[in-house]
Design a protein that fits this description.
The protein has about 140 residues and is α+β, with helices and mostly antiparallel strands. The protein contains 4 helices and 8 strands. The longest helix has 16 residues.
Length: about 140
């Protein structure tokens, strides 16, 4: 579950899900399909599948080929998911964690969180713009 998950986030997810279900024409068709399959909010997609956010604050990966849904475990992908969530649905801005005191600016993106002239999220920090030094040792 996302660290600071609270009732207010659940309501925001529910509201977005309701909106997508009610007005599917205003959404990307694959997002509508992902909602139908997972009952969760699509936050990121690529050729392999979707990352979705459930009402209970779980980040899940929906594999479009096998149609399997599994928890998203990779810490870097969890960061990508959170940053993508906020970019797509700005009302979730407060869900992004603040850098802890020991955090340092990511060298890969100089703290911007983006790479390739801003087109993609940085693979070093997942879009946060900072990393925890001790994370690399783990
Ligand atoms: Zn970075």
């Amino acid at each position: 579950m996302i660290a600071n998950w609270a009732r207010e986030w659940e309501e925001k997810v529910a509201s977005r899900l309701e909106q997508i279900t009610r007005e599917p024409g205003g959404c990307r068709p694959w997002d509508v399909e992902a909602v139908r399959r997972t009952k969760a909010l699509p936050v990121y997609s690529d050729l392999s599948g979707f990352i979705v956010l459930s009402l209970t604050g779980e980040l899940l990966f929906y594999d479009t080929e096998s149609e399997a849904i599994r928890p998203l475990d990779d810490p870097l992908w969890k960061r990508v998911a959170l940053v993508s969530l906020v970019e797509k649905y700005p009302e979730f801005r407060q869900i992004l964690p603040s850098p802890p005191p020991e955090a340092i600016a990511c060298e890969g993106c100089s703290g911007s969180g983006r790479a390739m002239n801003g087109r993609v999220l940085c693979g070093g920090c997942g879009g946060f713009g900072w990393i925890e030094e001790k994370q690399d040792a783990a």
